[in-house]
Design goal:
This is ATPase. It comes from Marinactinospora rubrisoli. By secondary structure, the protein is an alpha/beta fold. 31% of the residues lie in helices and 18% in strands. It has a domain of 88 residues. The chain has a four-stranded parallel beta sheet with strand order 2-3-1-4, with helices on one face. Helix 2 crosses helix 3. The relative contact order is 0.32.
Length: 129
């Protein structure tokens, strides 16, 4: 099995703080619309097509994923001795962060790079706010 070169953790700020060992943390809470606000989406997750489509159609999300992919490549270009760790967070960790993390994983993996993706809070209860 190939050695993991990139570790992506998605999370929800309302559950806990970002992973302390991340090289880069992307905070999606304030700049991108939240599917949680739509009662039809609230109990869905990034595993649902409707959520993935809604998040990826949000203005700015595709550019953010491009930027995260470029940042990952920049970290990997350095004298890497350990995996590059990225953390992507939103309010609850079920929608925006999980979709962006999964999209980033696909793009980085398509470059032939071994990627591990952990959705830390995706399975936790919906945070009512």
């Amino acid at each position: 099995m190939a050695q993991v070169q990139v570790e992506i953790t998605t999370f929800g700020y309302l559950h806990d703080t970002p992973p302390a060992d991340a090289h880069l943390v992307a905070d999606l809470r304030r700049h991108f619309r939240d599917p949680h606000r739509d009662p039809r989406m609230r109990y869905l997750t990034a595993h649902d097509v409707e959520v993935r489509e809604r998040v990826m159609a949000t203005p700015g999300i595709a550019a953010l994923v491009d930027a995260l992919e470029a940042a990952t490549a920049a970290y990997l270009a350095g004298p890497v001795t350990a995996p590059v760790r990225l953390a992507v967070g939103c309010a609850g960790g079920r929608h925006r962060a999980a979709v962006v993390g999964a999209e980033l994983q696909q793009r980085v993996r398509a470059r032939g790079i071994e990627v591990e993706l952990v959705h830390r809070d995706l399975g936790k209860d919906v945070v009512h706010r």
